Amino acid sequence: MEYHSDRFRDFSLLFLQNGLQPVALLPANIVGDVVYSHAGLTFGGLICGYSMTTNLMLEISRILVEYLKSMSVKNLVYKAIPHIYHSVPAEEDLYALFRYDAKLLKREVTSAIPMPAERFHKNRNWAIKKAERNHVIVEKSDDLEQFMSILTRMLVARHELKPVHTYEEMNRLASTFPDNIKLFAAYKGDVMLAGVIVYESSNVAHAQYSANTEEGMKMGALDAVYGHLVNDYYREKRYFDFGISTEGGGRHLNIGLIRYKEAFKARAVMQDTYELKI
Q: How far apart are CA 95 and CA 91, in angstroms?
């Protein structure tokens, strides 16, 4: 988290049992009298180990609320970690939020494939075969600069937006976590046509960014990258997560985007954010 620490006032908390044993931690930041878990992370929420129990989570929640009151905090905005990222069932925090009358603030839809994948929809298979006919090659790449340039041009042209990460930030993250952040790209000769940056955790391969050039769209290049990731490189993971297809806190669904993901046989997983009045 250090790469964007200048943008956030840290409020991360560590919970100790008997004053010694860490049992949970909460990555968090504070803005005014509102605490966020953590606004600079894709996923937030309490992180805990295998020894967590429901009753212990209720006690942690009680202590958390008391502490926030003592710090004159008015609201806690809590991003729950989607269940596919848990190593074991671990939704004790959702029960604690219910007990404290937390309100569902946002419900975003991410699309994930349980692995190994089923056969894709015929349109996606057709696009992958088209890439093969055009001699498109998919491989792991170190050329983050070229990919981020393609991504930036695509986002500006389609949505008048820029990526959340700059090339410098993305390069720093990938260099710091080479086993967890990887770029896969489709090439025609030496020309990059499309690519996907994957954030890899124990159970999930998450597509953080994807981009396609105009030429890549004609050749099925992005489909070829996803086909390689799902069918080959990450077939041993529990899930492949394409990311969200919603905007406005989940109130607007991008139909075209989610249809594309669902054609790979991805299904909906909720990415929820709660607000707790302190």
A: 7
Domains and CATH numbers, the chain: 2-108+273-277 (3.40.630.30), 116-237 (3.40.630.30)
Integer Cα distance of 220 and 55 in angstroms: 51
Residue range 121-142, pLDDT digits in tens: 999 999 999 999 999 999 999 9
Q: Match 């929820």 to its residue by tokens.
A: 272
pTM summary value:
0.93
Report whether 82 contacts 109 (CB < 8 A): no
Q: Which residues in the chain come in under a pLDDT of 50?
A: none
CA distance 222 to 229: 11
Q: How far apart are the first and last CA of the chain?
A: 26
Place of tokens 């090659």: 137
Write the pLDDT tens digit of every residue in 41-61. 888 899 999 999 999 999 999
Non-local CB neighbours of 86 within 8 Å, separated by 6+ positions: 203
Spell out the residues 6+ positions from residue 128 whose beta carbon is closer than 8 angstroms to its own: 120, 220, 223, 224, 227
Model pLDDT, residue 3 = 75
State the Cα–Cα distance between residues 106 and 273, nearest whole angstrom: 5
